[in-house]
Amino acid sequence: MQLDYLCEVLLGQGNCPCVNNVRGPIIGGPFTLVDMENHTVTERNLLGNWILLYFGYTSSPDVGPEQLQMMAKATNILESRHNRKILPVFVTLDPQRDTPSHLRAYLKEFESRIVGLTGPVSAIRQMAQEYRAYFKKVEEEGDDYLVECSHNMYLMNPNMEVVRCFGVEYNADELSEAIVKEVKGTSTDKSYKVL
After folding, report:
1. Under DSSP, is residue 98 helix (H, G, I), strand (E, B) or coil?
2. 195 in a domain, yes or no?
3. Distance between CA atoms of residues 105 and 100, nearest Å
4. pLDDT at 62
5. pTM of the predicted protein model
6. What is the residue range of 110's domain?
7. What would the pLDDT profile of 78-135 be if each residue is shown by its tens digit?
């Protein structure tokens, strides 16, 4: 099933409209993927962490690398200026090309703490659907292709509930400030566990 809507939040408009404030998030759900060391990772492995989750792909020509740079910078700002640790997680939308070893080499260029996840096409498709992350393979000349995607980042609380989503209009300082506002009022734990 292809999703025809995106969770977009304009700068300064507050919480993600995809979050139901009465009964918790309406986006998110269980998943089973593999990390860069080929270990199985599920949503249960991430419990107890504040997470900044981004769906993208390593062959992205422009927006993807910009978003990963912003994620890395915001993660560093949160730790150095605010003494807050957020676990950055990158889920590929192109598992055919983004193997665990390829993800490891690619993400190392941005920030060694980013956890890269991949898996079978069906598992990626299911997780993207659960998280309302739009993506579509766009054929190019020959065997080459691009992947259109929504480029949103999700802030997840330690219970793996989406509390906020961010679009591409944020810079690293704005992103880190918005995350601090969310984390400050709800968490006294300033660290994350390592997978």
Report:
1. coil
2. no
3. 9
4. 74
5. 0.79
6. 33-184
7. 999 988 999 999 999 889 889 999 999 999 998 889 999 999 999 998 988 888 876 6
Identify whether 20 is part of a domain: no
User: To 5 degrees, how large is the angle CA 23–CA 29–CA 33?
Assistant: 160
27 Cβ contact partners less than 8 Å away, ≥ 6 residues apart: 7, 18, 19, 130, 131, 132, 154, 162
Question: The domain that contains 87 carries what CATH number?
Answer: 3.40.30.10
Residues 6+ apart with CB under 8 A from 44: none
Count of structural domains within the chain: 1
Crossing angle for the helix pair 63-82 and 172-184, to the nearest 10 degrees:
50
The structure tokens 């910078």 sit at 73
Q: Residue 176's closest CA among 65, 67, 76?
A: 76
Average pLDDT over residues 1-22: 37
